[in-house]
Amino acid sequence: MDRLAQAVALLKAGELVAIPTETVYGLGADASNPAAVARIFAAKGRPADHPLIVHIPDSGHLERWARDIPTAAHTLAAAFWPGPLTLILKRQPSVSDVITGGQDTVGLRVPGHPLALALLEAFSAAGGSGGIAAPSANRFGRISPTSAEHVREELGDRVALILDGGPCTVGIESTIIDLSREQPVILRPGAISAAQIEAVLRSLPLCDPTKATTTAAPRVSGSLEAHYAPRTPIRLVAPADLPEALQTLRSQGLSLAVLARTPPPAALAEAPHWLAAGSDAASYAHNLYAALRQLDHAAADLILVETPPPAAEWQAVQDRLTRAAAGAGQELAG
Ligand code: TXA
Ligand code: MG
After folding, report:
1. Ligand 2 mean position to 238 CA, how many Å?
2. Which pTM value belongs to this model?
3. Residue 209 class from Cβ within 10 Å (0-12 exposed, 13-18 middle, 19+ buried)?
4. DSSP strand pairing (26-30 vs 17-19)
5. Cα-only R_g, the chain
6. Mean pLDDT throughout 28-33?
């Protein structure tokens, strides 16, 4: 049996399969099998009230999971699927509470990775629901995996099969937009920016997310302050302050690792663990989680992260770094 057929058989048997996507690897289960979905929570150590995204082969499957679908959903799906965008819509009554965390909405996404799409299509053709519930394939509160090796490191034999689709091209989790309210609101920034979404929706302005989160915002584990965290403490430092911070902290006897956009200047070249993730936002996002993992393994006392530029295209990276700095080195719930 080839890997894809094996993955389909495992999903149908209620087992967990790690799947590559263009954003991060997912820990997948048959979305129509609540017992299988419950195993995801056990494997991740994730609290039961955190909802999961259902991955579908194409937008023709929307009605199977969602109801009262607004035009904006079809417009966004046509523009960005397959791709790194998750739509939050009102759910069909048949969708399990295990997936939605008991909420009246469901998150849906068509992933832009050939192997994920092939699996979703094969699963659907083999009589499965055509939906794979999958959070990122990391232990709760830890860094999302962007390679099959990372998944092995996170979950080991807690997963029946890891489909290796190579390194994730995007590298950070999908943009999440909630279309279940009167006005659309971005719940999690990602590679698809607010500007790109606004350009497509035009007549339907986005709600200011800072206002939305103070009102009845749904539970989003990615919106917990401490998230995406390595074990080593992280401190964000403005680029101009980096040389002095390095000198001061070193003189205190601390061993340091550095995550920057570019290689170290000659004067700092003897810095022991310096990683350059990329000078543009897309390549930085692509490298970010692998770089944080690598620096975490360096077992330094502190990871200094150069603050990214305050430009819109860096917003998603800035979001993940801020959360990593808030959560690093702390024992997280679950
Ligand atoms: O790129 C991604 O989105 C990856 C890949 C595997 O698709 N998945 C991912 O899943 O990041 P996860 O579970 O780590 O993050 C999904 C986020 C969570 O913060 C969850 O709370 C939120 O989506 N979410 C899911 N369903 C929701 C809903 N009905 N309402 C609000 N938020 C929801
Ligand atoms: Mg996650």
Report:
1. 27
2. 0.93
3. middle
4. antiparallel
5. 20
6. 98
Hey, what are 274's tokens? Answer: 């310096």
Report the nearest atom of ligand 1 relative to the CA of 46: 13
Top pLDDT among 21 and 267 is at 21
The arithmetic mean of pLDDT across residues 251-261, rounded, is: 95
Place of tokens 């937008």: 59
- The tokens describing 168, both together, are 């994730």
State which amino acid sits at residue 228.
Answer: Y
Q: What percent of the chain has pLDDT over 90?
A: 81
State the Cα–Cα distance between residues 108 and 88, nearest whole angstrom.
6
The finding on whether 87 has its CB within 6 A of some atom of ligand 1 is no
Q: Which ranges of the chain does DSSP label H, i.e. alpha helix?
A: 3-12, 34-44, 62-65, 71-80, 97-100, 114-125, 148-155, 194-201, 209-214, 242-251, 281-297, 315-327
| Phi, psi of 206, deg, nearest 5 | -75, 145
Query: What atom in ligand 1 is closest to the CA of residue 52?
Result: 25
How many CB atoms are closer than 10 A to CB 299?
11
* Dist CA 41 CA 35 (whole Å): 10
Q: CA separation (Å) from 177 to 71, 84, 85, 104, 208?
A: 14, 11, 8, 15, 12
Q: How far is CA 161 from CA 5, 29, 148, in A?
A: 12, 11, 10
Q: Which amino acid is at 293?
A: R
Q: How many residues would you count in the chain?
A: 334
Contact (Cβ atoms closer than 8 angstroms) between residue 288 and residue 320? yes
Give the list of residues 6+ apart from residue 167 with CB closer than 8 angstroms, or none. 146, 147, 286, 290
